[in-house]
Amino acid sequence: MSTLPHDLRYGLRLLARNPGVAAVMVLTLALGIGANTAIFSFLDAILNLHFPITDQERIVNLWSASNTMGSRNSLSIADFLDYRQQNRVFEDLAAFAGDSFHLTNVAEPQSLGGNRVSFDYFHVLGVQPAMGRNFLPEESKGKARVVILSHGLWQGSFGADPKVLGRNITLDRDSYTVIGVMPEGFRLFAGNADLWVPLDLSSSALSRGVRQVMVIGRLKPGVGKEQAQAEMSNLAGRLAQAFPSTNKGWDVQVILLQDEINKRLGLGLLFIMGPVVLVLLIACANVTNLLLARASGREKEMAVRAALGAGRLRLVRQLLTENLTLALLAAAFGLLLGVWGMGVLRSLFPPAVNGPPGALHLDARVLGFTLLLCLLTPLLFGLAPALYASKLDLNETLKEGRRGFRAGGSHRLREYLVVSEVGLAVTLLGLGGLLVRFMLYMGSLKPVFDTRNLLAMSLSLSESAYPHDSDVAEFYRRVLENARTIPGVESVGVVNRLVVPAEYSSALQPVHLESGSGGKLGASAVALRVSPGYFAALRIPLRRGRGMTDEDTSGGARVALVNETLARSWRGDDPLGRRLHLEGLGPEQPWIMVIGVVGDAIIDDRKLLLPGVYIPCAQYPERDMTFVVRTLTPPLGLEEPLKRALWAVDKDQPIEQVQTVEQMMSHEFAGSNSLVKLIAAFALLALALASAGVYSVMSYVVAQRTHEFGVRMSLGARPLDVMRLVAIDALVLIGSGLCLGLVATCVFGRLMGGILTVMGVKSYDPTTLSSVSLLLMLAALLACYLPARRATKVHPMEALRYE
Question: pTM of the prediction?
Answer without folding.
Answer: 0.68
